[in-house]
Here is the input.
Amino acid sequence: MPGDLARGRLKVEWARGHMPVLEGIRRRFEAEQPLKGLTVAAVLHVEAKTCALALALRAAGADVRLAASNPLTTDDDAVAAVRDAGVPTWAEKGESLAQYHAGLRAVLDADPDLIVDDGADLVALVHTRVGQRGKIRGSTEETTTGVTRLRALEKSGKLLFPAIDVNDAAMKHLFDNRYGTGQSTIDGILTATNLLIAGKVCVVAGYGWCGKGVAARLHGLGGDVVVTEIDPVRALEARLDGFRVMPMLDAAREADLIVTVTGNTDIVRAEHFRVLKDGCLLANSGHFDVEVSKRDLEGMAVAHRTARPNVEEYRFSDGRRAYLLAEGRLVNISAGQGHPVEIMDLSFALQALSTEHLAKHGRTMDLKLHPVPEALDREVARAALGPMGIRLDEPTKEQVKYAAAWEGGTT
Ligand SMILES: NC(=O)c1ccc[n+]([C@@H]2O[C@H](COP(=O)([O-])OP(=O)(O)OC[C@H]3O[C@@H](n4cnc5c(N)ncnc54)[C@H](O)[C@@H]3O)[C@@H](O)[C@H]2O)c1
Here is the structure.
């Protein structure tokens, strides 16, 4: 559905008004024009916050092309606003897979110099469809799943250009994955269901950066949180954070709500559906819609209907019902409003600085996955503290000397 331009403009204005770090970078970009003459293909969840990034890259002199990184996470009002501001955009909430892939092809057809990717679908398309670097100086990657795919590409020796792993920058995963996914996943679940979390057994699959955030927020709302894991360290961490840990088959028997955030596939599948309690809610905040097996759910269900917007009811032959939220796609952006604006300020500030870095150095960087340069990570941290009125101590000369010496020990 076409979005509402006036509403979109207000949403973008609201986002930009709460993104001081990115806005500071945009002002510098406007003056310095570091992307002048370059084309940027950005494949991201197209929301108001994303428009703020697109406008910052354009202010830097780039010709920006924007496409959705997921068929269900687009805000059509934001699309109307960013198109109106002159950024060609391929995104529509609820678009078909054919439309989605056409969007990827369209931004690639612009012969980009730089790629901003979220989930690595565009980078994968370059490697399968074009198979050559062309003008591309490099790409940046926003999320864990995209980084996992890039690592596999790097390992295969086929990576055609340098990529920057924005996800693993401190200023990204410590805040976006944990606090951003934590808060917005709850937003999505509550908006979709209007149900109470307190008193519910809430199973969180995966105790990574996102899982920690989701578990903490569910606990904060009075949920009885159970964690499932395959990593012994993370399992212990979850236990010592106060949560019960058990295999999914046991957890599924008690669950009122299951949230998957593993980045892996088939986390909740037929064997689990067989033991679910009646009415269990199934939500996913991992990048792809593969964590709750829709194939198994559809195969086992004898009836299916839409119970509410973003809530699909599946009825099994014994009468039990399971409710899949947002078609198993990212519940926080599909059914909720996505990450809080201030969180995306940090993530997109890193994206903007990393894109500038690739524009300057991409042609001479090794063909591998690079971390965000530490100086950029710290620049974003310092810029974020300023508007919050938080000041730091400066180490004394004595402290600098002490921290750099090996001689001082027991006194
Ligand atoms: N919803 C969002 O807005 C959003 C934001 C950031 C990241 N993500 C996505 O969320 C997913 C998780 O990201 P992360 O940063 O937390 O990753 P992470 O690597 O820090 O954590 C994933 C955790 O899942 C565990 N895991 C893997 N397979 C499992 C299984 N079969 N059962 C139980 N646990 C399993 C891993 O051991 C790990 O601890 C990724 O797909 C990422 O792209 C989504």
